[in-house]
Design brief:
Mean pLDDT: 94
Order of helices and strands: EEEEHEHHHEEEHHHHEEHEE
Distance between the termini: 7 Å
Structural class: alpha+beta
Number of helices: 9
Shape: globular
CATH architecture of the largest domain: 2-Layer Sandwich
Low-confidence stretches: none
Number of strands: 12
Radius of gyration: 18 Å
Largest sheet: 8 strands, mixed
Oligomer: single chain
Number of domains: 2
Helix content: 25-40%
CATH class of the largest domain: Alpha Beta
Strand content: 25-35%
């Protein structure tokens, strides 16, 4: 029996550093850089409907869910492209717009669920193409969709979903993060002056290991001018304790690696815990 609803999950992505690549097409436009695909992300539940409705919900640490937005221009845009009307509920635990790649995760989770529910027969690659084009068009991201096609600590050497991506699974300990709110992604990605400075801060070599990744990310946050006062304070404390840390791109927050990081971050707000994701977007349930 065909399910009346389908839910899909997509992990989020923390970018350590990035550089915009402007291609001849949307497909070849994106970014290169390095980041971590994380076990926390977005669950999208899709039901057939004669009209489209979208509810963006957040789950508290107590497990309760509350709506933070009604409607999503970027999700509506993609659904119109596909000629689909549906009721969509997306839910996440991490703060939205704070450098956790949740825009890309919401797109990939929603499209994955929609593809399954409506038997569209799209491959994972085709789903990623739609999501990437929407992110670039709406200036909500450049490389998150490419990264979230799979798990791991990622090094992206080419733009778009077909760019060369190396995935390493070398971070067995948990990651922790605190957030002080969003940095408006469209304002940064749409500013030629800021993007020029970001481009000049990009590392000259790729990270060989986890320590390199955090060191390169920290230098990038400082040289790009994106680092905030709050982030600088916390990362210096992490340095003194020998805990690898950097800034969540693009968000006013810190992510740090290893069990010692939890206690260091606790005085600065709610501490989120997650691990390196093992895989990308996938269907989690079909409801009869």
């Amino acid at each position: 029996m065909k399910p009346s609803a389908v839910a899909a999950f997509c992990p989020g992505h923390i970018s350590g550093y990035f550089k915009k690549i402007s291609g001849d097409t949307i497909a070849s436009t994106g970014s290169i850089g390095a980041g971590i695909v994380i076990s926390e992300g977005v669950t999208a539940t899709v039901r057939p409907s004669d009209t489209t409705s979208i509810s963006i919900r957040q789950r508290s640490s107590m497990g309760t869910s509350f709506e933070v937005a009604s409607g999503s221009p970027i999700l509506t845009h993609v659904m119109e492209q596909l000629g689909v009307t549906a009721s969509v509920i997306t839910e996440c635990m991490l703060p939205i717009g704070a450098g956790f790649g949740l825009s890309a995760a919401a797109l990939l989770a929603t499209l994955t669920a929609m593809n399954h529910l409506f038997d569209r027969g799209m491959s994972a690659e085709e789903i990623a193409q739609y999501a990437h084009a929407a992110e670039v068009t709406h200036r909500t991201g450049l490389g998150d969709v490419a990264a979230c096609q799979g798990g791991g600590r990622v090094i992206r050497s080419g733009p778009g979903i077909h760019g060369l991506i190396e995935r390493r699974f070398d971070m067995p300990e948990p990651l922790y993060a605190v957030s002080f709110g969003p940095i408006p992604t469209p304002a940064v990605l749409g500013s030629p002056v800021r993007m020029d400075r970001i481009s000049s801060a990009f590392p000259k070599t790729t990270p060989e290991n986890v320590e390199d990744f955090f060191r390169f990310s920290r230098l990038f946050s400082e040289r790009s001018g994106l680092i905030t006062r709050e982030v600088k304070t916390i990362t210096r404390l992490c340095d003194a304790a020998g805990v690898p840390s950097s800034m969540t791109m693009l968000g006013n927050g810190v992510f740090a690696y290893g069990r010692k990081a939890h206690d260091l971050l606790m005085p600065f707000g709610h501490v989120y815990e997650f691990h390196v994701a093992a895989t990308g977007a996938h269907v989690v349930e079909g409801l009869a």
